[in-house]
User: Fold this.
Amino acid sequence: MAFLRLASRWPALSKFGVANPSLHGKSPPLRNGFLPLTTSSAVGKSASAAATTEAFRGGSSQAVGHAPGQRKDVLDSSFDDAHAAYKSKTTWEILRAYIVYTLCSSSYLVENNMKLMKIMKAVMGEKMFTALMKGTFYGHFVAGEDQERIRPTLERLRSFGVKPILDYSVEEDLSQEEAEKREVESSVSELGDEKVQDPVHGLYMDGEDGHWKGGAGRSLVEGTMPQFHVDKTFADRRYKVSSARTYFYLNEATCERNLEIFQQSLQAVAGATYGTGLAAVKLTALGRPQLLLQLSEVIMRTRQYMAEITAKTAQANRSSPEDKGNIIGKHISPEQLHQKLQQTCKLSEAPVKKFLQNVTFDQEGLIHLFPWSGIIDENLELSETFLVPDIKSGKMVRLLTQLSSKEEEMFRNMIRRINVLAQTAEDLDVRMMVDAEQTYFQPAISRITLEFMRKYNSKKALIFNTYQCYLKDTFNEVVTDLEQAKRQNFYFGAKLVRGAYLEQERARAAALGYNDPTCPSFEATSESYHTTLTECLRRIKDLKSKGKPNMIGIMVASHNEDTVRYAIEKMKEIGISPEDKVLCFGQLLGMCDYITFPLGQSGYSAYKYIPYGPVNEVLPYLSRRAQENKGILKKIKKEKKLLLRELFFRISRGKFLYTPKGDYTPI
Assistant:
């Protein structure tokens, strides 16, 4: 009767989906934020109480049978369970989230947020402004200022089944003019920015004296590749980008500081996440962008070069002339390459012989045309590495503009920094995730990352690459990289995202006159994502049947419910369980909690992307979060509805001072 009287006082609650509310179950006391594994009876009682609570509420996250420390709830795949989404939050945090999302719905506030924050800081003073930000946007989207202050957040996430991806989110607050100046200066070689159109007058090596002769060009492949050359109009890489952090090169010293920051993130993962977390890094923070641009152009010109060879050897080869796969997908043997070159080249010449000796291959054919392992491991000079025999003239031709000795040293420094991070990850036994960036950097970023996978992923997946599924070629790129991992026998780790640079990529392609690399619609992007994910899961299943179940690890990093549901359904269909630990899910801190927490509490591997850093230095990050949330009003509407549902439930049951105490163990 008491329950009925209380329910009758809150007739409006049914509007928010709060039907027949009851008391939350109580969890046993925690030690250092974690449930002692010896309290099996207490865990059982807690689970039973939670199940009873959810039954009264009509919820679906009922606790199921579990061993001590292994509580699991039943997943509501509609992601409409407010209690499962927010039982990790205090009532104040729920109220704060609702306020933040409401503010993010205001076009004026979002469009002028950075200007308003600076005005508020000037008026209120440093101390009051910092307190205000911690109580609102900063407190919602950022975990804390440093490694120690983020620990309570990480421990609470863990107790509710969620693991972290740490990201030190400090950004420089540069003006557009300063950003453009830095980018232009750091994207052009000190020897000049050469855009070659005429391959005939390119540099070639004379077979008799071994010296370079000819014009200043660099390519035997006709046509320019404008996408790999800086353009002042798009030099500010923040243009139309709201969901990705941007680094602008200043000097080598700043790259060293970024290296130290990334190392600290790896150490924080090891010290605060019990080895379950990851750290995110960006390669543009570790070196001069010019080097990534030039290396990316070399990779794409190499593919064109191989396409020309393939077109003339297709009948003797099982790949087709139209095959868009990379070199590894052509299945050309070294003998076939030798045979083709023999028609036009003087194979007795030392440079051609050296070229043929340095190709990477196995019993299935070529893997790489160049000794990438030597570039990573042996500090080979780039200018003397990317040479190929021109099949028209027989001369050795450069695919890369000759770098200055200073630029060669800068490249070796960049590789050294990445190597230091990878070695740190291995020493600490934590994982490192390399973020994707713009398409004009990405070929180089992916190639370097794959080579570090080859080097460090021999026993487990420590290094992960990121693939943006809004790009038309993503499926082919993933298949190519999976094939390299298979043939060179290393663990493959990948994060699948929709992508962060869509509008910028489209605008840049239209302005510079090259093919738009992006999918034409949201539906096409979803199809790309799902097709790529399905291929990864198919290969996981195949490896599992061969006794190699953990050779591929995939993160579904998406705020889209349909994509998450698709992944779960495919896992069940293919026969992959969460316990196989080959597929996980990830969302940003402060966004889509109604997806992340129910997943983690039901036994799936779930992550939150955790930004941290001093308040004043993460303002650009907070600005982007506000802009991103404005762009997903449909998700905000659902989040606000669920937040209100949980808020009114707590008010109705006198649980306004509810203290979150989790008893889940992340998988």
Residues 1-62, 196-221, 315-323 have pLDDT under 50 and may be disordered. The longest strand covers residues 605-612.
